[in-house]
Structures are given as structure tokens and as C-alpha cells.
Automatic annotation (TrEMBL):
<dbReference type="Pfam" id="PF00822">
    <property type="entry name" value="PMP22_Claudin"/>
</dbReference>
<feature type="transmembrane region" description="Helical">
    <location>
        <begin position="61"/>
        <end position="88"/>
    </location>
</feature>
<dbReference type="InterPro" id="IPR050579">
    <property type="entry name" value="PMP-22/EMP/MP20-like"/>
</dbReference>
<keyword id="KW-0472">Membrane</keyword>
<dbReference type="GO" id="GO:0005886">
    <property type="term" value="C:plasma membrane"/>
</dbReference>
<protein>
    <recommendedName>
        <fullName>Peripheral myelin protein 22</fullName>
    </recommendedName>
</protein>
<keyword id="KW-1133">Transmembrane helix</keyword>
<feature type="transmembrane region" description="Helical">
    <location>
        <begin position="6"/>
        <end position="22"/>
    </location>
</feature>
<feature type="transmembrane region" description="Helical">
    <location>
        <begin position="29"/>
        <end position="49"/>
    </location>
</feature>
<dbReference type="InterPro" id="IPR004031">
    <property type="entry name" value="PMP22/EMP/MP20/Claudin"/>
</dbReference>
<keyword id="KW-0812">Transmembrane</keyword>
<dbReference type="InterPro" id="IPR003936">
    <property type="entry name" value="PMP22"/>
</dbReference>
Length: 92
């Protein structure tokens, strides 16, 4: 999850850099790749937590909680954001 936060912040900074340096009609490939990497990091982190949940919480009274559901919601949104960045073209 920390890697996904780092990739998302890098994606934001790269977007601003590309916004001012990219030529008209150019695509935001680097920004999109970093955002897709962030989405894949979210997916891998939540998948690992799903598999290892019973080992980390020995008492069955624990539930996954709202942050777990929020992470699964963030995964497709981050991937969608990355795809939109790749498709997006710069206008003047």
C-alpha cells in the first residue's frame, strides 16, 4: 500500500510536469503507467491481506473493516484513472 501511495504521488507530479512540457496532441503515457502501477500495488496488497488475514488475526472476532473494502474500491478506480491518463490527449 505504501508503494501505491508513492506511485500515485509520483503520477500526480508527473502529470503536472507533462501538462506544461508536453506538446499539443501528446498523450500522458508516463503518468498513466505510474497510476496503473499504483492500482496493481493496491490489488497485490489487498490480495495478500485477504489470504493472510486468518494468520494475522487468530481470534475470529476480527472483521476486515471499512479500510479493507475501501482498498478494494480504490483498486479499479486507480486502474481506470491510469487508463484514462493513457487515452487522454493534451489540448491547447
Amino acid at each position: 500500500m505504501i508503494l501505491s501511495i508513492i506511485f500515485s504521488v509520483l503520477s500526480l507530479f508527473l502529470f503536472f510536469c507533462q501538462l506544461f512540457t508536453l506538446t499539443k496532441g501528446g498523450r500522458f503515457y508516463i503518468t498513466g503507467i505510474f497510476q496503473i502501477l499504483a492500482g496493481l500495488c493496491v490489488m497485490s496488497a489487498t490480495s495478500i491481506y485477504t489470504v493472510r488475514h486468518s494468520e494475522w488475526h487468530l481470534d475470529s472476532a476480527y472483521s476486515y473493516g471499512f479500510a479493507y473494502i475501501l482498498a478494494w474500491v480504490a483498486f479499479p478506480l486507480a486502474l481506470l484513472s491510469g487508463v484514462i491518463y493513457v487515452i487522454l490527449r493534451k489540448r491547447e
